[in-house]
Amino acid sequence: MFARIYRWFRRLFILVWLLLVCAIAGWIAWANADLISVNLFAIQFPKLSIGFYLCFTFAFGILLGWFGTLILANTKLLARKRELNKAKKEVDKLRAAQLSP
């Protein structure tokens, strides 16, 4: 029951967070409507609004941070699984040693 309520609140929180992020992105795009052209590593990008480039950079940073965190979390998870398997093998050895006289 508590897991169901937790999932519902978690989904509600994510929805509110996404709506807030979209509202902030829309406000930034509206407040920064001037057109600029970005030159990055000798690549000329088209003239778009400052707000678009800011929102794109923000979204790219979020995705990059999310993927970096995902990689670190998976690395730690694999290390913990290896430790758990090692401990299980040790417990199995101890149980086998206790059973055989």
UniProtKB/TrEMBL annotation:
The organism's place on the tree of life at top rank: Bacteria
Entry's Gene Ontology cellular component terms: plasma membrane
Signal peptide region: none
Transmembrane segments: 12-30, 50-73
InterPro entries cross-referenced by the UniProt entry: LapA_dom
Occurrences of domain Lipopolysaccharide assembly protein A (ranges): 32-96
Keywords: Cell membrane, Membrane, Transmembrane, Transmembrane helix
Name of protein: Lipopolysaccharide assembly protein A domain-containing protein
